[in-house]
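Task: sequence design from structure.
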């Protein structure tokens, strides 16, 4: 089955995942994480892409981004990926690819899913059994969003700003979100949408994206008569 084209719309957040080739290690030392984040900041500014949340795992990365232009995320990921591969190959005297290929992404319904995806991203090290709490992991945005650490590459989103009238209120409210676990079905929903280039959101949001992008935002229902009028009238 042909891969769906990525959905890129200005002003709409994207959850982006980039994995190491064959899930092999992509970060070999603390310096590597620092280089990646520095260039993420630089290219974010260059291509006008706001970074709201991130986590750098040993063999993959998760990013929550909002582009100002249609091509912003693609330009950022291409430039960042190219630079980082060159850096790793030169530093460790290796050659060849580092990433598994195309990064994966999904558009995120800000009103209903933005803070959920941010929490999903920053909880990755906990789910992986690397730490007991996201604050213990140094290579994520949690300390910036929840603990007032100055992380220069982060830009707050309106959904985050709505958590309170000042920084203290927002951080307290944000930390409180982590007191409850993300349900397994929700985890699967996030992963499925990201891996298959569907849209992560409520039906109204998906319909809006379908109208703007000219293709389906979610898979067709399983079963039924694919020759029926209902099937034929599904958005492309």
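Answer:
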């Amino acid at each position: 089955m042909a891969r769906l084209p990525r959905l890129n719309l200005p002003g709409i957040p994207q959850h982006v995942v980039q994995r190491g080739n064959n899930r092999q290690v992509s970060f070999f030392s603390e310096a590597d994480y620092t280089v990646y984040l520095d260039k993420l900041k630089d290219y974010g500014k260059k291509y006008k892409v706001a970074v709201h949340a991130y986590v750098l795992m040993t063999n993959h990365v998760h990013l929550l981004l909002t582009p100002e232009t249609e091509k912003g995320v693609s330009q950022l990921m291409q430039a960042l990926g190219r630079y980082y591969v060159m850096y790793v190959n030169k530093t460790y005297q290796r050659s060849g690819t580092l990433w598994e290929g195309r990064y994966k992404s999904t558009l995120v319904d800000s009103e209903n899913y933005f803070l959920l995806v941010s929490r999903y991203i920053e909880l990755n090290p906990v789910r992986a059994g690397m730490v007991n709490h996201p604050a213990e992991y140094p290579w994520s945005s949690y300390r910036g969003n929840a603990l007032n650490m100055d992380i220069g590459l982060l830009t707050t989103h309106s959904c985050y700003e709505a958590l309170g009238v000042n920084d203290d209120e927002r951080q307290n409210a944000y930390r409180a979100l982590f007191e409850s676990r993300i349900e397994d079905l929700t985890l699967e929903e996030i992963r499925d949408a990201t891996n298959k280039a569907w849209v992560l959101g409520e039906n109204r949001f998906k319909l809006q994206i379908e109208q703007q992008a000219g293709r389906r935002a979610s898979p067709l229902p399983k079963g039924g008569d694919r020759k029926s009028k209902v099937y034929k009238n599904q958005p492309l």
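The radius of gyration is 18 Å.
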